[in-house]
Amino acid sequence: MNSMITIAxxxxxxxxxxxxxxxxFHTIPHEKVYxxxxxxxxxxxxxxxxxxxxxxxxxxxxxSFGEDGDxxxxxxxxxxxxxxKTKEVFITKGYVRDDGGWRESPLQxxxxxxxxxxxxxxxxxxxxxxxxxxxxxxxxxxGSTIVRFLVQSGVKRFHIMDHDRIExxxxxxxxxxxxxxxxxxxxxxxxxxxxxxxxxEVHTWPVKSDEKxxxxxRRLIRENTLTICTADSRTCRDLTNYNLIKxxxxxxxxxxxxxxxxxxxxxxxxxxxPCYNCYTHTLPDEAKDREIANAEAAEEIQYSDxxxxxxxxxxxxxxxxxxxxxxxxxxxLLRNKPTTLRSLDEDLSDPLYFWYNRRENGEDSERFQxxxxxxxxxxxxxxxxVQFDPNPHCPTCGDYLAYMKxxxxxxP
Length: 412
Ligand SMILES: [Zn+2]
Prior knowledge:
- By secondary structure, this protein is of the alpha/beta class.
- The protein has 2 domains: 4-113, Cytidine Deaminase, domain 2 (3-Layer(aba) Sandwich), CATH 3.40.140; 124-386, Rossmann fold.
- 26% of the residues lie in helices and 23% in strands.
- The strands form 2 sheets. The protein has an 8-stranded mixed β-sheet, with no helix packed on it. An 8-stranded mixed β-sheet has the order 11-10-9-12-13-14-15-16, with helices on both faces.
- Helix 5 packs across helix 6 (234-247).
- The longest helix is centred in the C-terminal third of the chain and has 19 residues, at 315-333.
- The mean pLDDT is 90.
- It binds zinc ion (ZN).
- Zinc ion (ZN) binds next to helix 7.
- Residues 273-275, 277-278, 390-391, 394, 396-398 line the site of zinc ion.
């Protein structure tokens, strides 16, 4: 079976010319694949040695250096470039242990920071995005996918808050895998992000975004460019909304309806009305129609001693919500910056968006026309922008006291 060795150029140290050093590689068991691209924990380590040959030296044989347990050996010879005399040229050879001997293997030397996002050039402004930071309230199935979209687009600074651990039942919908069951979701988040970009800055908060952590959440909302709240808990959403209004910051709320037959995405821009509380007041039925994806969400809407069944939706039906939220988030992160995406501002100017994956009995979507019918009508599998006015008496962003005085004839 062919092997492959991949190493980031920063692990080759030309100053050790004439010497050698050890380096641990990550390996995929039984696949003869070895790599070392970041300093993150290595689940399947393989020991290796690197020999930096002197310029005049012959390229050394892999049996002439290293340690007994090595599975990988690399030889690097540094030569001056014959053309410019200014640049050094690396001649590298890689070997893997095979049947007790050493077999030469294909070897790639990669400049990670230069190549990671090089293919996004011209598509998105990765330099601008690398300075922006995003605070995630909740890292469930919706949140984990949005994080992946953002890190792959070039966002490098994240704060992730979630108190839950990954359970087996999450795996079908979450970015996490079987081996992650039992881990705190925020610990998985950090590893997942850094596996996509080792230069990313990830801060994790394994706590619930409730009233006990109100001041912490408020500081994080203040200090980050954008907040994305995908938490199921109404308390988390209300308090996030409250902090956004108090700090004048932008936040996006995203969630699914029952068994993910549809979903909603709402943006509160610069802490100005309409806010999430205006939405729950103006469209209370829509706001209540939420996916019951876990025990906590079931408990929150339970109104008798009869348990509410947990009925989460398909990953396939959740992804449109995550994807739209990711797009809306990027648009906000690039706000007021010159970008090829500026024209999308007009498409994404509304505060609220609905999506329907299928017609649901007893709901408005039951009456939706087929997708090919009147294009001006509302349909399944198509984003529906919703305009609604701020509630002037909203307890969070409006003047609730004026409202109370008016309806009850109270004097100031
Ligand atoms: Zn409001």
